[in-house]
Design brief:
Layout lengths: L2 E5 L2 E7 L19 E3 L5 H18 L13 H5 L6 H5 L9
Antiparallel strand pairs: 1-2, 2-3
Length: about 100
């Protein structure tokens, strides 16, 4: 599928190359900069700028699945404490099993 990005009056043609190809429509797929291929002829630095701008534009519109939501603050999780290992703090050896 041909896609176009308009920048300063010039039009840049690009395509998304994901593995697998269906990943472009998945809501859980995190798009990477390396998956954007610039078809319009330009030098490397300009292509890198276009690629970053296109990625930023896509991520600003689409939801970002890599951002995790904040954990719920409920009463139980605030009271619960992590278990402290008993042998690490005092640097004691564990009791050996008797045979």
């Amino acid at each position: 599928m041909q896609m176009y990005y308009k920048r300063d009056g010039s039009v840049v043609e690009y395509k998304l190359v994901t593995d697998p190809k269906e990943a472009t429509v998945w809501s859980t797929h995190r798009l990477k900069k390396s998956e954007i291929k610039i078809i319009t002829k330009c030098d490397r630095t300009t292509a890198a700028e276009y690629r970053q701008e296109i990625l930023d534009d896509i991520l600003s519109i689409e939801p970002n699945p890599s951002k995790k939501s904040a954990p719920a603050q409920d009463e139980i999780s605030e009271r619960r404490q992590a278990r402290q290992p008993q042998h690490v703090k005092a640097r004691q050896t564990k009791q050996k099993t008797r045979r």
